[in-house]
Amino acid sequence: MQEKESRRKQNILLLVVIGMAIALAVFFQFYLSESTAEVKTEIVELVGKYNKNCPLAIQEGIRLDSVSLPERGVVQYNLTLVNVEKEAAELDVIQEEIEKSLLSTAKANPGLQVFRDNDFSLNYSYYDKKKAFLFNIRILPDQYK
Fold this sequence. Notes:
This protein is α+β, with helices and mostly antiparallel strands and 145 residues long. The chain folds into two domains: 50 residues; 92 residues, 2-Layer Sandwich (GMP Synthetase, Chain A, domain 3), CATH 3.30.300.250. The chain contains four helices and five strands. Strands 1-2-3-4-5 form a five-stranded mixed beta sheet. β4 and β5 form a beta hairpin. The longest helix is centred in the first third of the chain and has 51 residues.
């Protein structure tokens, strides 16, 4: 008799623990999805602000043409090297120098903080003054944190 009562108490305790675990799981799922939605809204608004100012000369000879979110966790920058023609350029040298500059800028730029905080990859596509594709540079989250 006492064994049945002990087993019953164990079952009740187990059900209570399972119920609490389910309640916590539902709460955290709701909380995390809400904060994810807020971050997504913030990033979409930021990209919209960038695009309102495009095209924008961001540096001598470099123009930002547009910014987009092509896939989850990726921000895409489309830029033009306004003084470069693909046929006459040393693309390897240009790409190497730009990549060094982008890495240091990505680490220090406060405007990219939301992307750092949310593990976004940064894609940069460069075109020449005739709109011919030159190269892509991809910076992964662990490279610029």
